[in-house]
Specification:
The structure is a single chain. The chain has 698 residues and is of the alpha+beta class. It has four domains: 225 residues, Heat Shock Protein 90 (2-Layer Sandwich), CATH 3.30.565.10; 162 residues, Ribosomal Protein S5, domain 2; 132 residues, 3-Layer(aba) Sandwich (Rossmann fold); 48 residues. The strands form four sheets. Strands 1, 2, 3, 4, 5, 6, 7, 8 and 9 form a nine-stranded mixed β-sheet that branches. A five-stranded mixed β-sheet has the order 10-11-14-12-13, sandwiched between helices. Helix 8 packs parallel to helix 10 and helix 10 crosses helix 11.
């Protein structure tokens, strides 16, 4: 039989098939390439981009005041008293310099080759204003410069008209107002706390810069406030005398003040805050640090005042020098014994709070969102400047040096003990053929992407979950009581806990320096605890464990919190579930008085309290039974039968899960440390300050 010829489909592929995106169209097509995401982080990134332009003016010495206002229509107004974006015709683009900056990628003062540009700026990409403009449904630029007041408006990155002079002005500066485009962003809701925390850092980093933050989202521009909107002052908003949330930052202390702020609730190991500021090979280096009595560390790095959360070359240079200097000083002064060996990088980081700031003329980041510094010259400059200054600090402060060395020695010895404990756990697993914990009811599927692990509270709920689960994809691991608070314990003691050890083995990732996310056995780790105070505590303890020792699991989005219902409502043969008091009230559709009577009646029936009536009354009760409403309050998962637990909490088609995400790791770190750490006063203050906000289910 002759072999059939394969028909090859002819596809025309010529020059006309090559598409070219013009102007800012690439930004709207692929916004994630420019701002990281179209979620909450990307939304706030719009503010950072415009603010960074104003801050660059401040770093150049042209600006000392920036105002950020959140407006009622989800717009943001950012004002600075810098030089003002030039409005003259640009020789290359043949339109105004303002329009060029707002509508063209890679255009701005940071690219100037002479002294008129920025000596130090936020980055080589230079796409800030144009990207924000492209991703906004409306943008207005108002510039006060050369004695005039000029405006230009845009929509989705395109100008609506030419730059127009609308009057004279004795002020100088730039006002950018933008409203994010709902076609791009999933949800447009700026978080005031996120804005405040980010801009607080900037105020510490630029000495003498005043930053005002105003939340005017509840302001009525027609009836609210006193003063004139057309005031000559570019900061006219503050003249309105509005009763709205406002915050002002102004610091002269720089990084030393920032380190003190981070450590204000901590027990410090040494009283003096180390600080150095020096320029080497055209790289400005600023480092401040202090050790505290904690097993965690916090390094906050900046490059040209941009927070580089993923680190980079400046952090590498710092860590290298820190380890080398402490090892050298410790051995030279016989503080490190021969049997101790030497410090590793992890040993010297324990308990450290450090802020690193570098400033470079030509800066390179790895990625558009500038989360990681890639400039190689920063590594050597930081290592040399910091290394020399820190070595002198230790020599000049022997008592403080000894405290720091002893802190690192404690970490070194704990590391060795933890390694022995961890090896013991892993060895035991190997000897048993990597047998999983006896209490674990594993699932049948071996594809981690399809597998789920329910961590449930108590053997009772565990037994019910095992009966109600889908055995193919759902595994159950019951925990007995409350696990160890790992915020107050080192790895060796932690692995001595049977509950934690079972969880580590069940996950399959190992722990510590041998952790491997690729070996994670389940891509959904679902915490299912009772809806009471104890359940909330157990959930918090598990999340503390995940944050401190399994952070990549959280970052990957593998951790979820189950949302079991609080109420079962039965009306005749109809069964409904309510997940909150509000949902219960809505389903019942009753007023407060009748609702209270119904709940009391339901409670009496649950307790076996039934009042017997006459024969006629009993007959009436029987007739009403078919329409009677019964409300059951679940106090724990163990009160549900297997069918109820499946259809409300475990069935992928109907359940509600909350995915655990970390929007701000630095804030999360401080919160975990305050609420779960060993220092009582900060926790007591927090409880007293927020007591009225607590909702207790007693």
């Amino acid at each position: 039989m002759a072999k059939e010829e394969k028909k090859v489909k002819e596809i025309k592929y010529g020059a006309e098939q090559i598409s070219v995106l013009e102007g800012l169209e690439p930004v709207r097509r692929r916004p994630g390439m420019y701002i990281g995401s179209t979620g909450i982080d990307g939304l706030h990134h719009l503010i950072w981009e415009i603010f960074d332009n104003s801050r660059d003016e401040a770093m150049g010495g042209y600006c000392d005041h920036i105002e950020v206002v959140l407006l009622p229509d989800n717009s943001v107004r950012i004002t600075d008293n810098g030089r003002g974006i030039p409005v003259g015709i640009h020789p290359k683009t043949k339109v105004s310099a303002l329009e060029t900056v707002m509508t063209t990628l890679h255009a701005g003062g940071k690219f100037g080759g002479d002294d008129s540009g920025y000596k130090v700026s936020g980055g080589l990409h230079g796409v800030g204003a144009s990207v924000v403009n492209a991703l906004s449904i409306y943008t207005k630029a108002e510039v006060h410069t050369e004695g005039g007041r000029h405006i230009q408006e845009y929509s989705q990155g395109k100008r609506k008209a030419l730059v127009k002079k609308i009057g004279s002005s004795k002020q100088h500066g730039t006002i950018i107002t933008f409203r994010p485009d709902e076609e791009i962003f999933k949800q447009i809701r700026f978080e005031l706390e996120t804005v405040i925390n980010h801009l607080r850092q900037q105020a510490y980093l630029v000495k003498g810069l005043r930053i005002d933050i105003l939340d005017a989202r509840e302001w009525d521009p027609i009836t609210g406030g006193k003063g004139k909107k057309d005031s000559d002052d570019i900061f006219w908003f503050r003249e309105l005398e509005l009763e709205i949330p406002s915050t002002t930052f102004y610091f002269e202390g720089g990084l030393v003040s920032l380190v003190k702020f981070y450590n204000k609730d901590e027990k410090v190991i040494h009283p003096s805050v180390f600080y150095v500021e020096k320029e080497l090979d055209n790289v400005g280096v600023e480092v401040s640090l202090q050790y505290v009595d904690d097993i965690n560390f916090d390094i906050v790095p900046f490059a040209n005042n941009i927070y580089t959360g993923e680190g980079g070359t400046h952090v590498t240079g710092f860590k290298t020098a820190l380890t080398r200097i402490l090892n050298t000083y410790g051995k030279k002064n016989n503080l490190i014994k021969e049997q101790d060996g030497g410090f590793t990088g992890d040993d010297v980081l324990e308990g450290l709070t450090a802020v690193i700031s570098v400033k470079l003329r030509e800066i390179q980041f790895e990625g558009q969102t500038k989360a990681k510094l890639g400039s190689t010259e920063a590594q050597g400059a930081v290592a040399t400047v910091f290394g020399d200054a820190f070595s002198n600090f230790l020599e000049e402060n022997p008592d403080e040096a000894k405290s720091i060395i002893n802190k690192s020695l404690l970490a070194l010895r704990a590391r060795k003990a933890a390694k022995a404990a961890k090896d013991s756990v892993l060895r035991k697993g190997a000897l048993e053929g990597m047998t999983l914990p006896g209490k674990l009811a594993d699932c049948q599927v071996r594809d981690a992407a399809s597998a789920e692990l329910f961590i449930v509270e108590g053997d009772s709920a565990g037994g019910t979950a095992k009966m109600g689960r889908d055995r193919k994809t759902q595994a159950i691991l019951p925990l007995r009581g409350k696990i160890l608070n790992v915020e107050r314990a080192r790895l060796d003691r932690m692995l001595g806990s049977e509950q934690i050890k079972n969880l580590v083995i069940a996950m399959g990732t190992s722990i510590g320096d041998t952790f491997d996310l690729e070996k994670m056995r389940y891509h959904k780790l679902i915490i299912a605890t009772d809806a009471d105070v104890d359940g909330a505590h157990i959930r918090t303890l598990i999340l503390t464990l995940m944050y401190r020792y399994f952070r990549p699991v959280l970052d990957a989005g593998y951790v979820y919190i189950a949302q079991p219902p609080l109420f079962k409502i039965k009306r005749g043969k109809e069964i409904m579930y309510a997940y909150s008091d509000e949902e219960r009230d809505k389903l019942l559709g009753k007023d407060a008085a009748s609702l209270a009577e119904l709940l009391a009646e339901s409670a009496n029936e649950e307790d076996g309290i039934v009042e017997e009536g006459t024969e006629e009354e009993e007959e009436i009760k029987t007739k009403k039974a078919s329409t009677k409403v019964h409300v059951q309050r679940y106090k724990g998962l163990g009160e549900m039968n297997a069918e109820e637990l499946w259809e409300t909490t475990m069935d992928p088609e109907h359940r509600v899960l909350k995915q655990v995400a970390i929007h701000d790791a630095e804030i999360a770190n401080k919160v975990f440390d305050m609420l779960m750490g060993s220092e009582v006063p900060p926790r007591k203050t927090f409880i007293q300050s927020n007591a009225k906000m607590a909702k207790l289910d007693i």
